[in-house]
Structure formats: C-alpha cells, structure tokens
From TrEMBL:
It catalyses: 5-amino-1-(5-phospho-beta-D-ribosyl)imidazole + S-adenosyl-L-methionine = 4-amino-2-methyl-5-(phosphooxymethyl)pyrimidine + CO + 5'-deoxyadenosine + formate + L-methionine + 3 H(+). HAMAP family: ThiC (MF_00089). It is an enzyme of class 4 (lyase). This is Phosphomethylpyrimidine synthase. Belongs to the ThiC family. The gene is thiC. [4Fe-4S] cluster binds at C409, C412, C417. Its cofactor is [4Fe-4S] cluster. It holds the Pfam family ThiC_Rad_SAM. Its EC number is 4.1.99.17. It comes from Halospeciosus flavus.
C-alpha cells in the first residue's frame, strides 16, 4: 500500500510532492521534510488526484487561503461549480472546498478533482445526510462508505467533526446562537435522537485507516465553534478543542496528516490567544481558521470583518485562512463573491506574512511602490493583487492609452499630485536627492504566493475537457491568464 506523505517524511524520504513544495516556498527541501515529519505542516496529496500541483500548509510557510464553493438545492449546476473552481484558482485560492449540498454531488466532486491543480476538500457528512430520509438514520457503516468513496475519487482533505462529544452538548445551552457549524449541528441532532456517541468519534480509528490508504489529510472540524462574539471562548468551544488534540495524536499514530480547524467569531483581542491555545493543545498541528469575524454587525461586508480577524490569526501562527465572502450569512456566493472574498483574504494572508518577516514577502510591496512612484501604470497593474480590477478602476476616469504615461491620476489631478510634486522638487537643484530603487522580484526569496501573479499553479496535468454523464465540459480556465 502506498505510504502517506507523513509516513514517508518520517522515514527520511524526500517525496516528489515535498520537492515541489520546497521549490514553491523557496525553502530547503530537508526543512520541508522535517516539518511534515513532525506534523507541523501538511502536504494534502491524495494518490488519485492526478492534476494536483502540491502545496504545503504550516505556520513556517507562506499563509495559505482556502475558497469554499458548492451548490445547494436552490442554485448552481455542474458547469457553474466548475466556473467557480477556476475563478477561485485564478484569484489565488491555495485550496478549494466543495461544500455542495444539492444534487449531482458525485459528478461535481469528480469534475472538481479532475480540473483542480489545488487540493480539494469536502465535508462527507453532507453527502451522508443526502443519502437518508432523516439524519438520525445515518449509520456508522454509511459514514465509512461515504468517506471511502470520496477518498477513492481523489479528495485531498476532509473535514471530520469528530470532536463533538455527547458530553459537550449541554455546554452549548447558554449560547446566543447555539451550534452554527452545519456538520456540528447534524451530529448533535444525531446524538440527541439516537442516544449514542458521535459516530465519527466512535469510528475515528477506522476512518484513519481509510485516510492513510489514500493519503487524505484529516481536517479536524470545529463543530462547536462560536457563531457570535458572545459565544467565543466558552466551555463548549474549548472542550471540543481538547478532544481535537486527542484526535490529532490518534491520527498521527496511524500515519495520517492532520490540520485543525478554528473558531468563526472571536473578538479582536482574543484572536491571538485562540491560536496560541490551539497550537499548545494540538501539539503544533497546522491551524486552519474560518475568519475569524471580529464583529457581528456587518452582513454584506463579512469578507471585511473576517479578513481583519484573519490577519491577526495568521500573524499569531494560523497556517491557512478559510475565506469569507460578502454573502456570508446571507446566501450562496457567486463568482463575483468568490473574487471579492479571495481578494480580502489574499490581502490578509500577505499582510501577515509581511508582519511575520517571511523571507522576501515585502519585495512584492516594494516593487509595486516603485512602479507607483515612477508612474509606470502598466507595471503597477501587472503587480496588483487583482490586475483586472486595478486597471478597470483607473480607466473609469482616464481610459485613454496616453494616460498610461501620465504623471497623475484622477484622484489628485495634475496640479495636486504629491508624487509629481516630490519628483519635480528632487529633479531641481536642491537638498533632496533623486530616488532610484528597483526590486528584482525574480531574485526574491519569497514563496510563490508572495510574488505576483496570484493563482500561479502548474496546470500541465489539468485536462482541457472532461466528459461527465455523456456531456463534455470545457470550462473557461483562468489559471494561465
């Protein structure tokens, strides 16, 4: 049976995936291997995911961003989901989670895996619910069957809410918003109606056998995460975290790669403490956080409220940020929401990497600042996190090509442009010397995600088209734009 990245790294082997990760991170390959061997980093890499360009998640590496996509009974089809996948990759998602709860789940999952150069994650409990008339009818065997099938399809990591125990449920009684995790609420209902322990906890060792066989990274879900500021840091959240620490060690003992999911709503002053507590309880396993949202009052803008918390979480050591879109709490995101959510979270991740002094992380900022000062508009657009958006906003008021050479924009105009005034003063005979800096991004030690363009992946193994149920799909691919 093929070994997992964790098992091979422990044996001293540098796998092809670890070699690729070291190249993308600009880090020594032996350092990457050691981090994986120690469980401090994961390389989600299902043996069956042929189109994957491997990446790493760990606090010692560039902060990663996950994009959630997926259909529901109300909206989105297979073609729409593939388009959301490619939009996610284009705008910088390092992983993508398929959270589909509607119809055609197998076809959507297979298409996502086949077309994705980034790791694909799922939450198997959602499919289990779709297979029964009542969630209470879910059996242990059904859960194992769903997990095994998804592993065989090539899913790279799965969220498993195994940390929600029967003994934890009474701890949620005083909350304002109860249990807000979909998986957590489903399992709580199952335990209440069946009077039995969480089946994912009861069968966790058997699940680990499946994960190890296919090298699926387990993402230990925070089923009791707080859904509002008032519930943050309560006994329910921390009781589950202790169980997640136990499960982390169980999975490691069986050669399974592990990351741990974190809270959704946390006041700003408690974010860093949450990260530090998880790192201590879970022995340094990578922390994957949703947000966290630092205020509850901004529906429609929760990509902003959460990106603020995400920046602080990453600065404190969170390894991957799960994006939140403007539609959070309001509806299923579309392509525009995916784009806006990813922009907010790429900013959060990069800002934290700069603050944490990751090698070369600020070189990108310096290069763009130099282009801005030189009024090199085309290079400024090319270096932007979202080049299309930057160019679009500039051209709304100054669309002509002649304005790409202009020493001003419509914000200040010719007369009041501070950079033009500064340059003219430096060019004149006086005390100030000219500024002539140039950052060489090609020589930067920064990881790929801290250099433009975002969405840079090796797509050589991604098929140009795929046939599903007799229909050929050739979705627009943004990955190489």
């Amino acid at each position: 049976m093929p070994k997992t990245q964790l098992q091979r790294a422990r044996a001293g082997e540098v796998t092809p995936a670890i070699e690729r990760v070291a190249e993308r991170e600009n880090r020594d390959v032996e350092f990457v291997r050691e981090q994986v061997a120690q469980g401090q980093a994961v390389v989600p890499n299902n043996h069956a995911h042929e189109s994957l360009d491997p990446m790493v998640i760990g606090r010692e590496f560039a902060t990663k961003v996950n994009a959630n996509i997926g259909n529901s009974d109300e909206t989105s089809d297979l073609r729409g989901e593939l388009q959301k996948l490619h939009t996610s990759v284009h705008y910088g998602a390092d992983t993508v989670m398929d959270l589909s709860t509607g119809s055609n789940l197998d076809a959507i999952r297979e298409a996502n895996v086949a077309h994705s150069p980034v790791p694909i994650g799922t939450v198997p409990i959602y499919e289990a619910v779709k297979r029964v008339d009542d969630p209470a009818d879910i059996t242990h065997e059904l859960l194992l069957d769903v997990v095994e099938k998804q592993a065989e399809q090539g899913v790279d990591y799965m969220t498993i809410h195994a940390g929600v125990r029967m003994e934890h449920l009474p701890l949620t009684d005083g909350r304002k918003t109860g249990i807000v995790s979909r998986g957590g609420s489903i399992l709580a209902q199952w335990m209440e109606e069946n009077g039995m322990e969480n089946p994912l906890y009861a069968k966790f060792e058997e699940l680990c056998e499946i994960f190890a066989e296919h090298d699926v990274t387990v993402s230990l879900g925070d089923g009791l995460r707080p859904g509002c500021l008032a519930d943050a840091g309560d006994d329910a959240q921390y009781a589950e975290l202790e169980t997640l620490g136990e499960l982390t060690r169980t999975a490691w003992d069986r050669g399974v790669q592990v990351m741990v999911e974190g809270p959704g709503h946390v006041p700003m002053d408690e974010v860093a403490a949450n990260v530090e507590r998880q790192q201590a309880v879970c022995d340094g396993a990578p922390f994957y956080v949703l947000g966290p949202l630092v205020t509850d009052v901004a529906p429609g803008y929760d990509h902003i409220t959460s990106a603020i918390g995400a920046t602080e979480a990453a600065r404190a050591g969170a390894a991957m940020l799960c994006y939140v879109t403007p539609k959070e709490h309001l509806g299923l995101p579309d392509e525009t929401d995916v784009r806006d959510g990813l922009a907010a979270y790429r900013i959060a991740a990069h800002s934290a990497d700069v603050a944490n002094g990751l090698p070369g992380a600020r070189d990108w900022d310096d290069a763009l600042s130099e282009a801005r000062y030189a009024f090199d508009w085309r290079r400024q657009f090319d270096l932007a996190l979202d080049p299309e958006r930057a160019r679009e906003f500039h051209d709304q008021t100054l669309p002509g090509d002649n304005y790409k050479e202009a020493r001003f924009c419509s914000m200040c105009g010719v007369e009041f442009c501070s950079m033009r005034i500064d340059q003219d003063a430096r060019d004149a005979d006086g005390e100030m010397s000219a500024i002539d800096d140039e950052t060489d991004l090609d020589a930067s030690p920064a990881a790929e995600v801290n250099r433009p363009p975002v969405g840079t992946h090796d797509t050589e193994r991604v098929p140009d088209e795929i046939e599903i149920d007799g229909v050929t799909f050739t979705p627009e691919s943004h990955a190489d734009d």
